[in-house]
Amino acid sequence: ATIPVVITVNPEPTPKTIAGRDKICVGEVNLVYSVPSAFGSTFHWTVDPGVGIKTFDYRTSAIIINAATVPGSGNITVYETNSYSCDGDPSTLTVQLYTQAPPENINGPNDVCANSTQNYSVTNRAGSVYKWTIPGGAAIIGDPSAASVTVIFGNVGGTISVTETNIAGCV
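Below the sequence we write its predicted structure tokens.
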């Protein structure tokens, strides 16, 4: 005689979308990545060295990383083990690391006439936003966040400078 065996099939966790920035700056610290938590589950995180290193990982639904120090890309991956000891499929977030733009000279004239209009520019990089500082009494015509601006001068000289913030927020 055989004794029947009752089989219980426990559910496998479903992959969860990783929340966190997919464009980061080299050297950034305390970046949080997370997935929705689940009671009784543990989470297994992997961070490619090209993305950074984990500074907080207690097998919970969130980790904290410090970004790598060179530009590049890599993946952050997580899978869940639920309260039934069933492993879910991994979820992956591809992260791109950007560096700050190198300082460069502004193209445009140093000597101008009062009440004249002049053009100034720096290298235009896709996704970047530019913040220009101009002398008092001068005004920018057009988009003040562009890599190239037209300035109408009054009768006061001064300094023109620009700060670039790239697609990842690196200044």
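DSSP finds no helices and twelve strands in the chain.
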